[in-house]
Amino acid sequence: MNSISKHIISFVCAFAALLHAAAQDNQQQMLLPGEQPKPTKYVAIEEEKQHMVLFQGFTLSVDVFGPVSYAVSDYGTAEAALRLNLKNTYFPIVEVGYGKCDTEDFNTKVSYKVNAPYARIGIDINMLKNKFQSNRLYLGARYGFSTYEYDIAGPAMIDPIWGGSGAFSIPNTSCTSHWIEALFGAEVKIYKNFHMGWAIRYKREVASKKNDYSKPNCIPGYGYTTNASCWGGTYSLIFDLNWGMKKSHKRRVNVEIREVVPTNPALEQTIDNETELNDGERRESNDGKQAE
Amino acid sequence: MALATQMLAGCYSNNCPMENTVTCNFAFYDAEGTAIAYQDTITVSTLKPGYKTVYTYRKMGTLPIVKEEPDPELIEAGYTETLSQQRNDTILLNKKANATSIKIPMSYFGTIDTLVFAYRRISLRDTVKIQHSSYPHVELPECGTHMFHHLKSVTATDAAIDHIEISNPNVGYEGATNIKIYFNGVAEAE
Questions:
Q1: Tell me, what's the ipTM?
Q2: A195, A134 Cβ separation under 8 angstroms
Q3: B 97-156 near A (Cβ less than 8 A)
Q4: Which residues from chain B sit within 8 angstroms of residue A167, using beta carbons?
Q5: Of the four listed, A12, A189, B67, B165, which is most buried by Cβ atoms within 10 Å?
């Protein structure tokens, strides 16, 4: 959108410049006898560059998608993140949360329970060209890990040939999982330092400690391990904390406005000669028209 | 947001293994270790815990008839009924012919499985004893529970079997050969 408007503005400016140049040519051609061309006037150009300091404060965010997810499904998280704002462009981030999963398969009646903390570290990069605006569109990457214990239980196992049955329960299985995430998100300013934003995350499990009995079905902070990768999302309430932040300041570049008055006598003479020459040509053409 | 949650939750697919029957896989070789298709028919039965009552009917000039249920008609026909107690057993594989390998299930809670190999051309039988441990396994809750096994030792008698060995001690549903049986004799070169 921004680039389109720039293109339109530049086109309009170029068109105006062309019109202006054409008008000046006409004026030069329409000079009356004894009239001198006007000196060139430089239009003021004022460049204004805003200098942004490196440290732009912290950002504290809370995810509301995780609790809603737990309310409507078997898995959810409670998560908060602290983000460093560097030049409103780079956002190194630490996310910590607590994930909970309590699920039971409808057909097999095998249940899986886990609740444990998790953490992620990574970075978000603001992709908008104008870094001064409060809205942000970013790409990010994360590395996440969680150390947890899960319980699996199910119906009693019955030996169909030799007979006998035994309860099926594997409690407190220790596990550590690692995963990576790639995310795309946006956030908008709602009021002063308060933003809201969403992010879609593509997650891929890198490693999980496995044992002979089972593998984790759901990892806190990651989600279900049914496939090698999964999708997730966050909807965050974001507060920009400006602790210790130095204010950005404007660096103004002033261009002096002045009229160029020809001071060189040789140049003046040249202009006079050209003027006379133009007057003579015009007179001749006017005489020709009258004779006709 | 709730809709998005449901959409994300609805993306999961079933990733359970296609082959999900846990069996101990036996492969057949001749005495020198060449893979063979065993020409004789093989019947594998196993002893189960507990005992059963067996009814044996005898009559002069006829072969004895063994039944697991009483048969009054045989008594009326002049047979003499004898009751005895035998170990419970069941047939796991019935008259498999020309086999290169067989798949036999294992007990969930026992530590030694006793398999009886009966042949058609040989009147003697072989007894194979497999010592193992068992443990439950869950791939995913939606796949259900399975009992996996770990083989500790295996022994066999020598009616038709030259020797026997463990190839892969982990018994799951991957389909790997767990036990190699080397039968007497050497396969003729084709």
A1: 0.79
A2: yes
A3: 105, 107-110, 135-145, 147-148
A4: none
A5: A189
